[in-house]
Amino acid sequence: MTEGKTKSPEFSHPAEEFFARVLTYYGVEWQYEPKTFPLAWDSRGEVTEAFTPDFYLPQQQLYIEVTTRRPRLNTLKNHKLRKMNELYPDVHIKLFKRRDIHGLLVKFGLYTEAERLEGSAAQVFDSEE
What is the 3-state secondary structure (H, E, C) of the chain? Predict the structure, then answer.
């Protein structure tokens, strides 16, 4: 059973809710923010930095992080992903950036949502499809 068919979680951003709807639509089992990974500790061993990916897809053993930050503001997110790769090399994680979510919104015909996400007209379609 997908989490989307049970009580819907409180998403921190509308893009996460849309992504969950797409996963549910396609019957992909998912969990929302099921695990937090410690990334740094102080001298007493207490966690000082952590990362909680947005989604976990158990059947694919894959974590998904959705970010809608503008590319120049992604420094912290990229730092955490690098730390994840260093500390947890067996944990697979995929980053969906603003342009990826925008492309999904346009593909599903959700032009108004895409425009709000991008802050500009969503009339440009990917010519490689």
Answer: CCHHHCCCCCCCCHHHHHHHHHHHHCCCCCEECCCCEEEEECCCCCEEEEECCCEEECCCCEEEEECCCCHHHCHHHHHHHHHHHHHCCCCCEEEECHHHHHHHHHHCCCHHHHHHHHCCCCCCCCCCC
